[in-house]
Amino acid sequence: MRRPLIPPPVIGLLCLFLMWIVSRSVTVWQVAVPYRHLLAGVLAVIGGAIDLVSVAAFVRARTTINPLAPSRAGQLVISGMFRFSRNPMYLGMLLILCGAAVWFGQPLNVLILALFVWVITLVQIKPEEAALTEKFGERYLDYCRRVRRWL
């Protein structure tokens, strides 16, 4: 499997930009979500917190956080948020995008959330999984059997 080429935050920002375009272009289906600003903020803060805690786990383990070079991982991080999701950083990004979708109030943005999950899984997670399987072997495969890819 080939190496990831686009940093996941760039993919997230592209999806955010697409959501903004859709919400500005398609105004007929706008939905008024009660307390949307509060709900959007809560989702974004939870997503950001998951990201920060997950990055901190990588820093504590003294392993690479570079998503474009998963083969450089020096440690397999399986504690903290990684007990619940093999990809909590991408889950955090998804929650931030969910917050944006609520903020924009455009139901079509749910399709962009699905697009984000599909693209990240295809171009980032699967190559990471291949690299980590090669690097850590049965230990990583056992982890994969115990913990789900997303949640």
Provide the fold topology:
Blueprint lengths: L7 H18 L10 H26 L26 H17 L4 H28 L1 H9 L5
Helix pairs in contact: 1-3, 1-4, 2-3, 3-4, 4-5
Give a description of the structure.
The chain has helices spanning 8-25, 36-61, 88-104, 109-136, 138-146. The protein is mostly helical and 151 residues long. The protein has one domain (34-146). Helix 1 runs parallel beside helix 3. It starts with 7 loop residues before the first helix and ends in a 5-residue tail after the last helix.
Q: What attributes does this structure have?
A:
about 150 residues, mainly alpha, about 65% helix
Helical content band: 55-70%
Tell me the domain tally.
1
What oligomeric arrangement do these chains adopt? single chain
> What is the strand content?
under 5%
Overview in brief:
The protein is an all-alpha fold and 151 residues long. It contains five helices and no strands. The radius of gyration is 17 Å and the shape is elongated.
